[in-house]
Amino acid sequence: MTSEQTKTFDLSASFKAYDVRGIVGESITAEIVEAVGAAFIDVLGLEGETVLVGGDMRPSSPEFSQAFAKGAATRGANVQLLDLISTDELYYACGALNAAGATFTASHNPAEYNGIKMSKAGAQPISSESGLKEIQALAEEYLNQGSIPAAATRGQIGVRDVLKDYSEYLRKLVDLSGSRPLKVVVDAGNGMAGLTTPAVLGDKILPGLPFEIIPLYFELDGSFPNHPANPLEPENLRDLQTAVVKHGADIGLAFDGDADRCFVVDEKGDPVSPSAITGMVARREIARAKAAGEETPVIIHNLLTSKAVPELVALDGGRAVRTRVGHSFIKAVMAQESAVFGGEHSAHFYFRDFWNADTGMLAAMHVLAALGEQDGPLSELGRQYEPYVSSGEINSEIEDKAAAVERVRVDFESEDVEIDNMDGSTFTAKDGSWWFNLRPSNTEPFLRLNAEAKDQPTMEKIRDRVLAIVRA
C-alpha cells in the first residue's frame, strides 16, 4: 500500500507469517507482485536458475502470475509458468523439479482476496523466519525507488504443465486400482480440486479407477458462487452432506480453495474428524515404512489433535512427536525427525514422500484406500479412530487474553491437572479423562478453546466451565 503524502510502500498489511495475502487492488496489485517476484530471486539467490510460477482460479491470478514472472525474469531467473495449479501441485513441482516456486492463491479467503505462497527448491517452506521478511523489505525498496534494476542477462519465460506428472506421482504412492467399487461425492467449492480430482481420481488423464465420482461445484470460479471454499466451517459442508445421503455414496470429500486441505464425511453425511483421518493415514504409513525396514516410524501431530493419535501410533509400533500448530513448525519437525507422516486438526496432512509438504489429495487417496480394502462403511471404520469426544475450536472475543488464561489457571490449580505451555496453555487431567487448550490468536482478539474428553457429558462440563471463566 502507498501513502499519498510520502509515496512510500509498506507491504506489512499483506505479508503474513507464512505467506502473502491481501485485498486485490489495495494491498496486493500487479505492481507490488512484480517487485515481490524480483525480490524473491534476489533474496534466494536464484539468478540464472529456473523458477516455477502458477496460480489458482481467482480472476487476478493470471495477471499476478505474469507480473511475478516479469519481475523474476528482470532479475535474471528463467520462469516456467505452470498456469492453473493447486497449492500441492506447486509443492510437487518444486520437489520433483528441485526448483523454487510461487503460486497465487488466498486459499479459503473470500473472493476479493489473493495472495502468494512461496517455496524454496525441494518444496522447503518460506516463512517470516526463512526469507519472507527479507523479500518484503527488498520489494518495498524496489517499489519506493520506482524501478527494478535489470540483471546482466534477462531470464526467459516459458510454459509447463505438471498436472499429468503430479497425478501419476500420487497414483504411484497409493495404488487404488484394487479397491472395491466406491461412490464418492467430491465438493470442490469451485476451487482447484475441480481440476485435480478428475485428473487424479477420474479418467481424464490416467486410466479410470473403481470409483464413481459425483462432482459438486467443479467449475473453476474464484467468485465462489455456491459457498465459501472453506470446509472448516460446518455450514460449508452442508451441500456435500446432503449429496452423500441423496446419492447413497460411500464417502464425501471437501477441499478448500487451493485444494491443499481435505475434509471427509461418512456415508451418513457425518464429518470424520481430521484427527481420525490423521490416525487412519498414520496407521497405513507406519505399516508401509515398517515393511520397507524402518524400525520405529515417526508420526508428527500438533497439540490440538486428539490424544487418540499418539495412542494409535504407539499401538502400531510408531513414535508420535507432538508439535506446535502451524505448517512451518510441522514441516521443520518432519525434516528433523525424518517423519513419515504428519497431521493437524485443521486438515493439513504432510507426507515424507511428498517432500514433507501438505497435500489434501494424497490424504484423500489414503482414506479411499483404507475404505476400499475392507467391506464395512466409513462410519464404522472412522469410529476406531475417534474414541474421544471433541468440542471443536471455539473462539471467544477477549481483549485481555492473558488475564483470561490466568483466571482459568487459578480456577484449576487445586485440581490434579498438568499444565504445559508449548503453544498456548494445555490443561490435562492426570487421570486422562479430559484435556483442553487455550491459545490466543496472533492476529485477532480471539482466545481459542479446544477441549476433548472420554465422553460427551465430561467434555460439555469442562467446555462450559472454561468458557464461563474466560467470558466472565
Automatic annotation (TrEMBL):
Swiss-Prot/TrEMBL cofactor(s): Mg(2+)
Keyword tRNA processing: no
Keyword Transmembrane: no
BP-aspect Gene Ontology terms: carbohydrate metabolic process
Pfam families: PGM_PMM_I (PF02878), PGM_PMM_II (PF02879), PGM_PMM_III (PF02880), PGM_PMM_IV (PF00408)
Domain annotation Alpha-D-phosphohexomutase C-terminal: ranges: 393-467
GO molecular function terms listed in the Swiss-Prot or TrEMBL record: intramolecular phosphotransferase activity; metal ion binding
Residue ranges of domain Alpha-D-phosphohexomutase alpha/beta/alpha in the record: 14-141, 165-269, 282-387
Keywords: Isomerase, Magnesium, Metal-binding, Phosphoprotein
SUPFAM superfamilies in the cross-refs: Phosphoglucomutase, C-terminal domain, Phosphoglucomutase, first 3 domains
Similarity-based family: Belongs to the phosphohexose mutase family.
UniProt cross-references to PANTHER family, sorted A to Z: PHOSPHOMANNOMUTASE (PTHR43771:SF1)
Protein name, UniProt field: Phosphomannomutase/phosphoglucomutase
The species this protein was found in: Paenarthrobacter ureafaciens
Taxonomic lineage from the root: Bacteria, Bacillati, Actinomycetota, Actinomycetes, Micrococcales
